[in-house]
Amino acid sequence: MFLIIDPQQHGVRLGRLHDNTITWRITKIQDRIFSVLKKVMDEASGHALKAIVVCGDASAEVSQKRNVSWSGLRTAVALGNSIAFAKHIPVAMVMVDGDESDRQLIMKIHQAFRGRKLSDPITPAYNGEPHITRPKK
């Protein structure tokens, strides 16, 4: 089973990929992601976690359309890397456009793991210029 972490505008979409089928659970920002993550993992009991997938935006236009914050992306990457490190499993970033079918996403996931080493962490892929808040004087 693969765990998919897909940051969204107002939360996170968590998915389980098993037997070429994705089962999604959507969380809201106010939900506690760890309790939802626990539910996802409990629902998958009996299936070993083989890998972690984090979805990133394929382009600046996609970033604008999906409206995912950079903080949300960084959080998803940190969570994915942490679980992968703790479980000694691979992690990969999959660039999405937001309109993929589950079948297309599954193909992208399998391609993303080709040639990846177990110890390779992922880094956030930013599309655009940062909006840095100036410190108050």
Characterize the main sheet.
5 strands, mixed
What's the rounded overall pLDDT mean?
83
Structural class per helix/strand content? alpha/beta
The radius of gyration is 15 Å
SSE order, as H and E? EEEHEHHEH
Number of helices: 4
The N- and C-terminal alpha carbons lie at a distance of 50 Å
Strand content: 25-35%
The percentage helix is 25-40%
Q: Which strand order does the major sheet show?
A: 3-2-1-4-5
Number of strands: 5
Shape summary = globular
Stretches where pLDDT is under 50 for at least 5 consecutive residues are: none
Report on the architecture of this protein.
- The structure is a single chain.
- With 137 residues, the chain is an alpha/beta fold.
- It contains four helices and five strands, in the order βββαβααβα.
- A five-stranded mixed β-sheet has the order 3-2-1-4-5, sandwiched between helices.
- The radius of gyration is 15 Å and the shape is globular.
- The protein starts with a strand and ends in a 25-residue tail after the last helix.
- The mean pLDDT is 83.
Could you write a compact summary of the structure shown?
By secondary structure, the chain is of the alpha/beta class.
What is the secondary structure topology, with strand pairs?
Blueprint: E1 2-8, E2 11-18, E3 21-28, H1 33-43, E4 51-57, H2 60-66, H3 70-87, E5 91-96, H4 102-112
Parallel strand pairs: 1-4, 4-5
Antiparallel strand pairs: 1-2, 2-3
